[in-house]
User: What shape does this take?
Amino acid sequence: MGKITEKFKKLFGYFKGGVDRFRVTVIFTLMVFGLVVLTTELENLSYEKLSVVSSSLIEVNKCFVLGIFLTAMFEVIREQYFEERKKWIIRTIYTVLTVIIGFGAYVLSFVVYNFEIGFWMLLPISLLIFLTVPILKIGNKEKYLQSVFVNFVVSSIFATVLYIGISLILVTITALFGFEMFYGFVLRFYMYSWVFVFDVLGVSLFLSLLKKPSDNLESYDFPYILKMLIKFVITPLIIIYTGILYVYLATVVISMKLPKGLISHLVLWYTAFSLIIIILITPLTKNDKFLGNFKKYFPYFSIPLIFASLFAIFQRIYQYGITENRYYVLLFIFWLFFCMILYIIKSKVTGVFISLIICLIIAVYTPFSAEKVSVYSQSQRLKRMLVKYGALKDGKVSKITQNLTNNEGSQIHTTIQYISDNSTIAKLNFKNEKGEVYSTLGDLEKGLDVKESWKDYYYRSDDEGNYEERKVITYKVKNIENSEIISDIAGYDNFISYKNVYNEDPINQENESEKYKIILKNKTITINSKDGAELAKINYEDAVKQIVAKLRTSKLPDTSDTVYEVPQKDLEYIGTIGKINYKISLRSIDDEIINGKPKDLYYEEFDFMFSEKK
Assistant: This one.
């Protein structure tokens, strides 16, 4: 019993040390937890005015989440550069600064501008500074980072095991003592437990385990199990993976084909992961020849792979311009190239972190940000396409008169859509015949005469540059605008209207009358009598397929659109099974066609009616 008490005292000592050292950060974690509980309980009351308050508090909580990262960053800066006797003055200053930065960033990012990434990018930047500041003045930089990694693993395991234990206790109590009437609260308590364990306890334990500037890292030893995992599992897998990529590059050179676009992502994440491993194994390389050779030679082998990924991403940029995703991929490939060169010339981990911080700042907060560069690239691409098709001259837009394919037209539509989503149409400075600048997506597309078939057409290129054409044809009941469709139930005694019937996730539903029990499950309607005898089993998906098969072969009016209005009888299926006569009547069906071949059918509702033969 004494040993257990000692262990608890030691654990409590860890938490106490973390709270004393990162007191402001722990307060912010408690605020986040408190606001999660408060907002959830307010929403549960289902009172409209309280719901508005709850929504506002959720937004406030975003600032406190950011505050956790900012205060931890400021505290390690204080430890490095300010005297201990002035710690409360500095803590007061950075707490006020955190509140100003948090709420200021929120207002600028969510209220004044639509700049959400500008707010959330402060999290990784503050985390990187949190990791960088302590290693600037110490010699054992990689050992310190090793300790941080181990602390994170230990804290994660601690929080996970504790949460599993609390969950099992809750499950047991609920099952044994019959708290079904409090089921809603129990579910919310699971969430509260998760937030408290990971947000408050997990973060507190992680911070309490962090090495202080005065700690001696010479005697620190990386855990044996992690050392073995890296040496005998992770490093060999990286070597094998590198070999596979080189074999692929060899096939590309031999076959004289362009490399797949996917290689950019494969190289990006694999090289980034390998960089982390290199940082972790650096202190081990002095006594381990295998790991030493891996650290020495891996950067050399990664350079050709990085060039291959650069070639692949440049190929996509040449074809389709820069998007935000391509911008980030390109930026981080250049960053990884810099890091590999850095490790070839001189192993300096501070350069890795500082350069990454600079990259993130450039990508979000400068005139060369991902958003600005991608919008400029897509704007230039749109102008080139419109000039090519004779729809843009001297800044004035006219209707596209050339007979474009759906592929070509779709590229115009998706480019305009991208600019509209990430900037404003007015910035294009496109004018109509009267000299007025187009300011909305709809007006510009109307001025260009963008076809509906272009909007319904989607193309996806695979990594070899092949295209997959997607087209959706809609069949709907011809009806007076804004009027309800009335199903003809003549000759049928029973009627059911099924709503929200989705092809991807079909519903299950039961209906009962005095004589019948009807079950809809797995796209099948089963009609049973009251005594349980099965009268009929109908697969409604087969009925829909037969309806569409007839529509595909029927003579429909020629139109450039992909929406066809048809008589109600053309969207009905009439059948008989045993003694049951039935009819399925739909409002509309979407027929998805990939590369000219039928792929899937989509519909949201249908009416089902039946009668039993006398």
Q: What stands out?
A: Residues 141-177 form the longest helix (37 residues).
